[in-house]
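REVIEWER CHECKLIST
Item 1: Sequence provided? yes
Item 2: Single chain? yes
Item 3: Sequence as submitted:
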Amino acid sequence: MATPAEARKEVERFREQFDKLRREVHKMIVGYEDIVESVLICVLARGNALLEGVPGLGKTMLVRVLSQILQLRFVRVQFTPDLMPADIVGTNMVVEDDRGRRHLEFKQGPIFTNLLLADEINRATPRTQSALLEAMEEHGVTVGGETHVLQEPFFVLATQNPVEQVGTYPLPRAALDKFMFKLIVHYPGAPELMEISRRTTDVEMPGLDRVMNRDEILELQAMVREVPVAPHVERYGARLVLATDPESGGASEMVKKYVKQGSSPRGLQALILGGKMKALLKGRYNVACEDLRDVAVQALRHRMTFSFEAQSAGVTPEQVVEDITRNTPEFVEEAALKA
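Item 4: Structure as written out by the authors:
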């Protein structure tokens, strides 16, 4: 077990590495400080991220920049309605050896990489979308009854267009649940647009340095998992997740009125891992309740199913999550929790 002095030193080293990553990303990405930080949190917490926004806002560029500065293998797959599952995971092919004998040989698909960009994931059919589920959860794929393990680290960073656009297939809940965070990318302001124009229309584009390699990423990922969580913080996270269920005793009136189904247990996993990252970035080696609140919107907005009344009233997932964090107390009596 590390001494307090050793823990402080490790936390400071973690923050320095994270800040180095953030500065390098912002050489190419203008603005979007919260989006960049949340994506980096997913990467170092060993999670997947879903970025939603209209085309042209730099979602794909962000992932490309990450692949360059992290020294990882990177593959971009453009999801289209005619894309098939085998186009992603690979397939068994009949090959002939030097003696004319034929046998099946597995040909790897683009998913065999470290960083997979699933671009416009909701343009593909649900059958193709589902090809990613095992890889996102188990970090492996099964083809022809044989499981192939993916090399660590492995992340899926997916982009999607708003479902109102023509030619999109909303991701099913099982697929959404595999993403640690869902991030909404909004239009940049006028100053950011002007800076984007300057950076992308000059003779030379900004150069990027490779600031972290595979072993360093794995080391930081392990450090995130080692951050301790006090029992009362863990119970608070559990109450936040239970408060998304309209049938639970801790549900607010807004949840009871507008939510049909609450978050799965993966919501708590996302809260805890995100909270560990937030604690490290604030210079602490312990998770506080405020750290869970800081990531609650990103971790829970896509893990609830809303009623027609919510849609007709214009109630957003963000409003519901904020209502939950506002109405969920940090401390309750143990007997009340069991009840």
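Item 5: Key structural point noted by reviewer: The two ends are 36 Å apart (CA to CA).
Item 6: Recommendation: ____
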